Protein backbone atom coordinates (compact mmCIF):
# COMPACT_ATOMS: atom_id res chain seq x y z
CA UNK A 1 0.00 0.00 0.00
CA UNK A 2 1.12 3.54 -0.78
CA UNK A 3 0.05 6.78 0.88
CA UNK A 4 0.11 10.36 -0.38
CA UNK A 5 -0.58 13.48 1.68
CA UNK A 6 -2.06 16.67 0.23
CA UNK A 7 -2.09 19.95 2.15
CA UNK A 8 -3.96 22.87 0.65
CA UNK A 9 -2.23 26.14 1.41
CA UNK A 10 -3.41 28.17 4.39
CA UNK A 11 -5.71 31.16 4.17
CA UNK A 12 -4.50 34.33 2.50
CA UNK A 13 -5.62 37.96 2.67
CA UNK A 14 -7.26 37.33 -0.71
CA UNK A 15 -9.57 34.57 0.53
CA UNK A 16 -12.47 36.77 -0.61
CA UNK A 17 -10.90 37.46 -4.02
CA UNK A 18 -10.10 35.47 -7.14
CA UNK A 19 -6.39 34.84 -6.62
CA UNK A 20 -5.21 32.47 -9.34
CA UNK A 21 -1.55 33.02 -10.18
CA UNK A 22 -1.34 36.26 -8.16
CA UNK A 23 1.44 35.56 -5.67
CA UNK A 24 -0.33 36.35 -2.41
CA UNK A 25 1.23 35.09 0.83
CA UNK A 26 -0.42 33.22 3.68
CA UNK A 27 -1.77 35.32 6.56
CA UNK A 28 -0.62 34.81 10.16
CA UNK A 29 -4.03 33.21 10.75
CA UNK A 30 -3.38 30.84 7.85
CA UNK A 31 0.01 29.88 9.25
CA UNK A 32 -1.48 29.25 12.69
CA UNK A 33 -4.22 27.10 11.18
CA UNK A 34 -1.59 25.00 9.40
CA UNK A 35 0.43 24.76 12.63
CA UNK A 36 -2.69 23.47 14.37
CA UNK A 37 -3.16 20.55 11.98
CA UNK A 38 0.39 19.78 10.79
CA UNK A 39 1.50 17.94 13.98
CA UNK A 40 -1.22 15.37 13.37
CA UNK A 41 0.97 13.93 10.64
CA UNK A 42 3.72 13.12 13.11
CA UNK A 43 1.18 11.87 15.63
CA UNK A 44 -0.20 9.49 12.97
CA UNK A 45 3.30 8.23 12.12
CA UNK A 46 3.78 10.00 8.79
CA UNK A 47 7.27 10.83 7.53
CA UNK A 48 8.28 12.02 4.07
CA UNK A 49 11.09 11.45 1.58
CA UNK A 50 10.23 14.26 -0.84
CA UNK A 51 7.76 17.12 -1.20
CA UNK A 52 6.22 18.85 -4.20
CA UNK A 53 4.84 22.37 -4.42
CA UNK A 54 4.03 25.15 -6.86
CA UNK A 55 5.74 28.44 -7.74
CA UNK A 56 3.32 30.34 -5.47
CA UNK A 57 4.54 31.50 -2.05
CA UNK A 58 1.29 30.60 -0.26
CA UNK A 59 1.86 26.94 -1.12
CA UNK A 60 5.60 27.12 -0.45
CA UNK A 61 5.18 28.77 2.95
CA UNK A 62 2.51 26.26 3.91
CA UNK A 63 4.91 23.48 2.97
CA UNK A 64 7.64 25.05 5.10
CA UNK A 65 5.21 25.26 8.02
CA UNK A 66 4.22 21.60 7.69
CA UNK A 67 7.81 20.40 7.39
CA UNK A 68 8.92 22.53 10.35
CA UNK A 69 6.10 21.19 12.52
CA UNK A 70 7.17 17.65 11.67
CA UNK A 71 10.94 18.25 11.97
CA UNK A 72 11.50 17.33 8.31
CA UNK A 73 12.79 20.55 6.77
CA UNK A 74 15.77 18.62 5.39
CA UNK A 75 13.87 16.61 2.77
CA UNK A 76 14.19 17.58 -0.93
CA UNK A 77 11.50 19.79 -2.42
CA UNK A 78 10.55 20.01 -6.09
CA UNK A 79 8.68 23.06 -7.36
CA UNK A 80 6.65 23.19 -10.55
CA UNK A 81 4.37 25.78 -12.14
CA UNK A 82 2.19 22.83 -13.14
CA UNK A 83 0.99 22.71 -9.50
CA UNK A 84 -0.02 26.39 -9.56
CA UNK A 85 -3.60 27.37 -8.85
CA UNK A 86 -5.96 27.63 -11.80
CA UNK A 87 -5.37 30.93 -13.60
CA UNK A 88 -8.50 33.03 -13.11
CA UNK A 89 -7.79 35.37 -16.02
CA UNK A 90 -9.44 38.79 -15.86
CA UNK A 91 -11.20 37.82 -12.60
CA UNK A 92 -7.91 37.86 -10.68
CA UNK A 93 -8.03 40.48 -7.95
CA UNK A 94 -11.83 40.87 -8.04
CA UNK A 95 -13.88 40.37 -4.89
CA UNK A 96 -15.92 37.16 -5.14
CA UNK A 97 -19.02 38.48 -3.37
CA UNK A 98 -19.03 41.72 -5.38
CA UNK A 99 -18.59 39.73 -8.59
CA UNK A 100 -21.50 37.49 -7.52
CA UNK A 101 -23.66 40.56 -6.92
CA UNK A 102 -22.78 41.86 -10.40
CA UNK A 103 -22.98 38.66 -12.46
CA UNK A 104 -25.07 36.39 -10.20
CA UNK A 105 -24.07 33.61 -7.84
CA UNK A 106 -24.77 30.95 -10.46
CA UNK A 107 -22.29 32.50 -12.89
CA UNK A 108 -19.63 32.87 -10.22
CA UNK A 109 -20.16 29.25 -9.17
CA UNK A 110 -19.64 28.21 -12.79
CA UNK A 111 -16.41 30.21 -13.01
CA UNK A 112 -15.20 28.78 -9.70
CA UNK A 113 -16.29 25.16 -9.91
CA UNK A 114 -17.30 24.15 -13.44
CA UNK A 115 -15.08 21.83 -15.44
CA UNK A 116 -14.72 23.40 -18.86
CA UNK A 117 -15.93 27.01 -18.62
CA UNK A 118 -12.98 29.43 -18.49
CA UNK A 119 -13.13 32.85 -16.83
CA UNK A 120 -12.91 36.01 -18.93
CA UNK A 121 -9.38 35.99 -20.33
CA UNK A 122 -6.62 38.52 -19.78
CA UNK A 123 -5.44 40.55 -22.74
CA UNK A 124 -1.86 40.06 -23.92
CA UNK A 125 -0.82 43.50 -22.65
CA UNK A 126 -2.45 43.11 -19.21
CA UNK A 127 0.18 43.55 -16.45
CA UNK A 128 -1.26 40.42 -14.80
CA UNK A 129 -0.14 38.33 -17.80
CA UNK A 130 2.35 35.75 -16.44
CA UNK A 131 4.72 36.53 -19.33
CA UNK A 132 5.75 39.63 -17.35
CA UNK A 133 6.80 37.50 -14.35
CA UNK A 134 10.44 36.29 -14.44
CA UNK A 135 9.58 32.98 -12.78
CA UNK A 136 7.73 31.98 -15.97
CA UNK A 137 10.35 33.24 -18.41
CA UNK A 138 11.30 29.69 -19.35
CA UNK A 139 7.78 28.82 -20.53
CA UNK A 140 6.81 28.92 -24.18
CA UNK A 141 4.04 31.33 -25.26
CA UNK A 142 1.67 28.37 -25.70
CA UNK A 143 2.22 27.28 -22.09
CA UNK A 144 1.43 30.66 -20.52
CA UNK A 145 -2.29 30.93 -19.74
CA UNK A 146 -4.44 34.05 -19.97
CA UNK A 147 -7.15 32.22 -18.01
CA UNK A 148 -7.97 28.58 -17.35
CA UNK A 149 -10.93 26.31 -16.81
CA UNK A 150 -10.47 23.33 -14.52
CA UNK A 151 -10.14 21.25 -17.69
CA UNK A 152 -7.13 23.38 -18.65
CA UNK A 153 -5.63 22.88 -15.20
CA UNK A 154 -6.13 19.13 -15.54
CA UNK A 155 -4.22 19.27 -18.83
CA UNK A 156 -1.07 20.53 -17.06
CA UNK A 157 -1.37 19.03 -13.56
CA UNK A 158 -2.32 15.44 -14.46
CA UNK A 159 0.68 14.82 -16.77
CA UNK A 160 2.94 16.08 -13.97
CA UNK A 161 1.23 13.63 -11.64
CA UNK A 162 1.53 10.78 -14.14
CA UNK A 163 5.12 11.42 -15.24
CA UNK A 164 6.72 12.75 -12.04
CA UNK A 165 4.77 12.29 -8.80
CA UNK A 166 3.04 8.94 -9.27
CA UNK A 167 6.23 7.05 -10.27
CA UNK A 168 7.97 8.54 -7.23
CA UNK A 169 5.23 7.20 -4.94
CA UNK A 170 5.19 3.83 -6.70
CA UNK A 171 8.97 3.54 -6.18
CA UNK A 172 8.32 3.51 -2.45
CA UNK A 173 9.01 7.13 -1.55
CA UNK A 174 6.69 8.91 0.89
CA UNK A 175 5.35 12.04 -0.78
CA UNK A 176 3.82 15.28 0.48
CA UNK A 177 2.15 17.81 -1.87
CA UNK A 178 1.46 21.39 -0.81
CA UNK A 179 -0.44 23.21 -3.51
CA UNK A 180 -3.58 25.16 -4.38
CA UNK A 181 -7.19 24.13 -4.55
CA UNK A 182 -7.70 23.55 -8.25
CA UNK A 183 -4.37 21.90 -9.05
CA UNK A 184 -5.14 19.41 -6.28
CA UNK A 185 -8.75 19.03 -7.42
CA UNK A 186 -7.41 18.24 -10.89
CA UNK A 187 -5.20 15.45 -9.58
CA UNK A 188 -7.86 14.11 -7.21
CA UNK A 189 -10.41 14.08 -10.03
CA UNK A 190 -8.04 11.99 -12.16
CA UNK A 191 -7.05 9.65 -9.32
CA UNK A 192 -10.64 8.98 -8.22
CA UNK A 193 -12.14 8.93 -11.71
CA UNK A 194 -14.57 11.72 -10.90
CA UNK A 195 -16.89 13.02 -13.60
CA UNK A 196 -17.04 16.77 -14.39
CA UNK A 197 -20.34 16.92 -12.50
CA UNK A 198 -18.85 15.21 -9.45
CA UNK A 199 -15.81 17.48 -9.29
CA UNK A 200 -18.03 20.58 -9.22
CA UNK A 201 -19.05 19.70 -5.66
CA UNK A 202 -15.60 18.59 -4.50
CA UNK A 203 -13.85 20.97 -2.10
CA UNK A 204 -10.57 20.60 -0.21
CA UNK A 205 -10.16 22.18 3.23
CA UNK A 206 -7.41 24.69 3.96
CA UNK A 207 -4.41 23.44 5.95
CA UNK A 208 -5.80 20.03 6.99
CA UNK A 209 -3.73 17.03 5.80
CA UNK A 210 -5.71 14.94 3.31
CA UNK A 211 -4.44 11.37 2.96
CA UNK A 212 -4.92 9.25 -0.17
CA UNK A 213 -4.23 5.53 -0.07
CA UNK A 214 -3.37 3.39 -3.13
CA UNK A 215 -2.73 -0.28 -3.74
CA UNK A 216 0.62 -1.50 -5.08
CA UNK A 217 -0.48 -0.66 -8.65
CA UNK A 218 -1.41 2.89 -7.62
CA UNK A 219 -5.13 2.27 -7.84
CA UNK A 220 -7.04 4.59 -5.51
CA UNK A 221 -8.43 2.89 -2.41
CA UNK A 222 -9.63 5.56 0.02
CA UNK A 223 -9.07 9.08 1.37
CA UNK A 224 -9.44 10.74 4.76
CA UNK A 225 -8.51 13.92 6.61
CA UNK A 226 -6.43 13.95 9.77
CA UNK A 227 -9.22 15.89 11.47
CA UNK A 228 -12.72 15.39 12.75
CA UNK A 229 -15.72 15.73 10.45
CA UNK A 230 -16.73 18.86 12.35
CA UNK A 231 -13.32 20.48 11.84
CA UNK A 232 -13.35 19.72 8.12
CA UNK A 233 -16.92 20.90 7.65
CA UNK A 234 -16.22 24.19 9.43
CA UNK A 235 -13.42 25.00 6.98
CA UNK A 236 -15.25 23.81 3.86
CA UNK A 237 -18.42 25.72 4.77
CA UNK A 238 -16.38 28.91 4.83
CA UNK A 239 -14.96 28.08 1.39
CA UNK A 240 -18.42 27.43 -0.06
CA UNK A 241 -19.68 30.81 1.12
CA UNK A 242 -16.94 32.79 -0.61
CA UNK A 243 -18.79 33.02 -3.91
CA UNK A 244 -22.08 34.27 -2.47
CA UNK A 245 -23.29 37.84 -2.77
CA UNK A 246 -23.45 39.71 0.52
CA UNK A 247 -26.94 40.67 1.60
CA UNK A 248 -27.62 44.33 2.24
Task: Describe the fold and architecture.
With 248 residues, this protein is an alpha/beta fold. The chain has one domain: Phosphoglycerate mutase-like (Rossmann fold), CATH 3.40.50. The chain has 9 helices and 6 strands. α1 packs parallel to α3 (57-69) and α4 packs across α5. It is globular and about 50 Å long.
Topology:
Elements: E1 2-8, H1 28-37, H2 39-43, E2 50-53, H3 57-69, E3 77-79, H4 96-103, H5 105-113, H6 150-170, E4 175-179, H7 181-192, H8 196-200, E5 210-214, E6 220-225, H9 229-240
Parallel strand pairs: 1-4, 2-3, 2-4
Antiparallel strand pairs: 1-5, 5-6
Helix pairs in contact: 1-3, 4-5, 6-7
- Structural class of the helix and strand makeup? alpha/beta
Number of strands: 6
Largest sheet: 6 strands, mixed
| SS strand fraction | 5-15%
What is the helix/strand order?
EHHEHEHHHEHHEEH
Highest-level CATH class: Alpha Beta
In the CATH classification, which architecture applies? Answer: 3-Layer(aba) Sandwich
Instruction: Could you tell me the CATH topology label.
Output: Rossmann fold
Mean pLDDT: 95
- Which spans of ≥5 residues are poorly predicted at pLDDT below 50? none
Task: Give the fraction of residues assigned to helices.
Answer: 25-40%
Using only C-alpha atoms, the radius of gyration works out to 17 Å
How far apart the termini lie comes to 52 Å
Amino acid sequence: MHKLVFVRHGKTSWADKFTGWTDIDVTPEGIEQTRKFAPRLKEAGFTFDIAYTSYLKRAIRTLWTVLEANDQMYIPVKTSWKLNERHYGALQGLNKAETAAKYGEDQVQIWRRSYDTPPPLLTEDDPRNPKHDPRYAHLSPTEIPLGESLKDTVARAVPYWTEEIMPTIKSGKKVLISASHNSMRAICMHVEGMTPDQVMGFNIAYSIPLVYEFDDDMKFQKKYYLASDAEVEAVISEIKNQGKAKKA
